[in-house]
């Protein structure tokens, strides 16, 4: 009798967990996928803005429009500060 009761409680617990965890896993994976895609799109946008400013200045090195200096190659700190400034204020138009 106690074995059947224990087995029924355990099967009920497993059934409830499966019914809750599987849909929540799908929702979580969809959210994570969307977060990664948005982060990649933001990064691509900042890289294209950097390239556009660099090309407008006449090449990969030199001063960009608005007085910004291009970030040296391999400089993560300069790159992150440049992208922060670029998002705050757009380059001046002529």
Describe this entry's structure for a reader.
The structure is a single chain. It contains 2 helices and no strands. With 94 residues, it is mostly helical. Helix 1 (2-56) crosses helix 2.
Structure described in brief:
This protein is mostly helical and 94 residues long. The protein contains two helices and no strands.
| Beta-strand share of residues | under 5%
How many helices does DSSP assign? 2
Q: Please give the radius of gyration in angstroms.
A: 26 Å
Q: Element order, helices and strands?
A: HH
Shape: rod-shaped
Level of helix content? over 70%
Q: Give the integer mean of the pLDDT values.
A: 77
Structural class: mainly alpha
Instruction: Note the gap between the termini.
Output: 86 Å
**Sheet with the most strands?**
none
Low-confidence stretches: 74-79
Counted beta strands: 0
Keywords:
94 residues, mainly alpha, 0% strand, rod-shaped
Topology, please?
Elements: H1 2-56, H2 76-88
């Amino acid at each position: 009798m106690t074995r059947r009761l224990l087995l029924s409680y355990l099967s009920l617990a497993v059934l409830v967990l499966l019914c809750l965890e599987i849909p929540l896993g799908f929702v979580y994976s969809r959210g994570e996928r969307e977060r990664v895609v948005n982060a990649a799109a933001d990064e691509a946008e900042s890289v294209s803005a950097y390239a556009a400013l660099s090309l407008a200045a006449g090449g990969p090195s030199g001063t960009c429009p608005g007085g910004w200096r291009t970030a040296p190659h391999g400089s993560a700190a300069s790159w992150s500060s440049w992208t922060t400034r670029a998002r705050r204020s757009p380059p001046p138009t002529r």
